[in-house]
Amino acid sequence: MADRDAVGDGGPVTDNIATGSPASDIPSPADGYVGDPAVRAEWDNRYADREQLWSGRPNGALVAEVAGLVPGRVLDVGCGEGADAVWLAHGGWDVTALEVSGVALARAAGHARDAGLIVQWVHAELTEAALPPASFDLVSAQYPALLRTADAAAERALLAAVAPGGVLLLVHHAGMDTQPAHESGFDPADYVWPSMVTELLDDDWEIEVDEQRPRVAPDGGAGAHHTDDVVLRVRRLR
Ligand SMILES: C[S@@+](CC[C@H](N)C(=O)[O-])C[C@H]1O[C@@H](n2cnc3c(N)ncnc32)[C@H](O)[C@@H]1O
């Protein structure tokens, strides 16, 4: 996860995002991005700061939790540089990957192209992308830095995307939600944590996993110092 420790068809969907120099990776305002420009700019800046921000390897909790699932349609929320999306596509999943940063998306698309894999890329904020409702067999959100709002829009969007019979897998770094606000600007009160999704579950949902466990961390990357995960895996029954 990042140094700062944060953690239908409405958005532009493409598998053809151009890659190039870091500067040319940054989309112009007219690129069809759907969401708050300030959120995109913050993450674009963080990605543009480094040639590669994350490890380039799929997240351990995703690999563990997906092992028993039959590949179908998956939505990767906050896909970053695309390691999970590429891994899922390689495993036979039909992948839609959503991300606010055009810099990250361009890298992700390059990795998929290099691997000869097709991924549908959505350049949007989760809450602004008009995703087809109840249509993904798996919604994966790995350390997503989703901003919290009074109407729980992000939490509801995660749940709304899951198809009946499908699974939401939400993984976060353990203990971050109770950290004090940091002088860097990080305040856990600003973000969505797994417990906030659990609070919204009704009889249509079954909790399959809700636990803290040691993180199986990929080597390298900006979040390598985090040692434990909170893993929430819930299934939509109907
Ligand atoms: C900590 S990173 C995790 C990236 C990736 N899932 C991984 O594990 O390597 C959080 C990601 O969420 C993205 N993001 C932040 N706010 C978002 C939003 N509202 N909708 C979609 N993605 C968002 C950021 O750009 C960033 O790539």
Look at the structure and give the CATH class: Alpha Beta
Major sheet size, sense and barrel closure: 8 strands, mixed
Strand content: 15-25%
Order of helices and strands: EHHHEHEHEEHEHEE
| Measured distance between first and last alpha carbons | 33 Å
Unreliable residue runs: 1-29
- Care to count the β-strands? 8
Q: Classify the fold: give the CATH topology.
A: Rossmann fold
**Which ligands does the model contain, each kind named once?**
S-adenosylmethionine
CATH architecture: 3-Layer(aba) Sandwich
**Rg on CA atoms, Å:** 16 Å
- CATH homologous superfamily (4th level) name: Vaccinia Virus protein VP39
Given helix and strand content, the structural type is alpha/beta
Total individual domains: 1
> Which bin fits the share of residues in helices?
10-25%
